[in-house]
Amino acid sequence: MKFSERLYKELQPIWRKNHAHPFVQGIGDGTLDQEKFRFFMIQDYLYLIDYAKLFALGVMKAEDLETMGKFAKLLETTLNEEMSLHRKYGKKFGITEEEFEQAKPSPTTLAYSHYMLHVGQNGTLTDLVAAILPCMWSYSEIGKELNQIPGASEHEFYGEWIKMYSSKEFEELADWCIDLLDQLTEGKPETELEKLEEIFLNTTRFEYMFWDMSFNQAMWPTDE
């Protein structure tokens, strides 16, 4: 069994919990409060800034030119395409470029991105891939699942998001990352696989926390 197949099988309970979250379901059926999605878009934009840094770390840690080139392409796509789409899409929700740039991360956004950066900076390339994969893989799976709902991809506000993450292009990015993890873990001892599984589990949990944070629009506690 490939390592990715093992992860997918063992983590189905929390994986399905992500899919069933009311935020995700609200995107699919079009009932999500627009203020919640607006909050999500801003936090996701901030998250992508650090996510892009992880691809830069991938370039540095890769040992062959092909892998370096792929991470460089992911870095370029994130900075110049995905974040641009966020800014353009944000206009639908009244988010200006200034608001994106001046926004502050929530505690969950900070914790999630800083955990991945810690793993990426201090671990191996395999550790890095295990940390970044749940985001790409789960978004691709969620996008494809929501796209099956009649009319969901044509929704005035959420249709473009569904189209983006259900696209063949995004699926190919996730598949490349899955294949890379399988290549890197081939023949690894069980002790190392268990460590990688823990990293993957942690960022999968963070994915759920990110949906939950967005649904509740949770920022720092105040003194009020």
Describe this structure in words.
The structure is a single chain. By secondary structure, the chain is mainly α. 79% of the residues lie in helices and 0% in strands. It has helices spanning 3-10, 12-20, 22-29, 34-61, 65-90, 97-102, 107-122, 125-147, 159-166, 168-185, 190-216. Helix 4 (34-61) runs antiparallel to helix 5 (65-90), helix 7 packs antiparallel against helix 11 and helix 8 runs antiparallel to helix 10. The radius of gyration is 17 Å and the shape is globular. The mean pLDDT is 93.
Average pLDDT, rounded to a whole number, is 93
Give the strand content.
under 5%
Helix content: over 70%
Number of strands: 0
Topology as a string of helices (H) and strands (E): HHHHHHHHHHH
Note the overall shape.
Answer: globular
- Rg, nearest Å: 17 Å
Tell me the number of helical segments per DSSP (H or I, 4 or more residues long).
11
Structural class: mainly alpha
Low-confidence stretches: none
* Main pleated-sheet profile: none
Note the gap between the termini.
Answer: 53 Å
Blueprint (SSEs and pairs):
Layout: H1 3-10, H2 12-20, H3 22-29, H4 34-61, H5 65-90, H6 97-102, H7 107-122, H8 125-147, H9 159-166, H10 168-185, H11 190-216
Helix pairs in contact: 2-11, 4-5, 4-7, 4-8, 4-11, 7-8, 7-11, 8-9, 8-10, 8-11
